[in-house]
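Lecture 7 notes: from sequence to structure.

We start with a single chain of 132 residues. Read the sequence below before looking at the structure.
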Amino acid sequence: MFQQAQNPISSYQKVERDIAVENANPHQLIVLLFQGAEQAISLARIHMEAGNIAEKGMAISKAIDIINLGLKASLDLEAGEIAHNLAALYDYMVRRLTQANIKNQTAILDEVYGLLHEISTAWAQIAKAPAE
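Now the structure, written as tokens:
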């Protein structure tokens, strides 16, 4: 019975997310990627603490995919040193998430979440900065 109640909510959330993506500019898309990765890590932490191994693994895999296929793939490595540093940091995050999954350590999830949050906060500030 509870599963049936979740389906309309999940459907609504998917539609809401799809609309946000369709209406987003490139900067906003990156913000959405950061939010998705942070949410996946938070969900992985919940599942890790609850002992839900399969769900934890799926949430960590989702975070890794967002980092690799979204955030890292969006970098323009010809733009300079910052892009290369971010690529290296994203690689580090993926390695740490893999370790968190294997070792079942929430502290590692917290570390990666903190790194992502720092970058996402800085990225969000870019949009607020006045154009010169």
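DSSP finds five helices and no strands in the chain. Keep this in mind for problem set 3.
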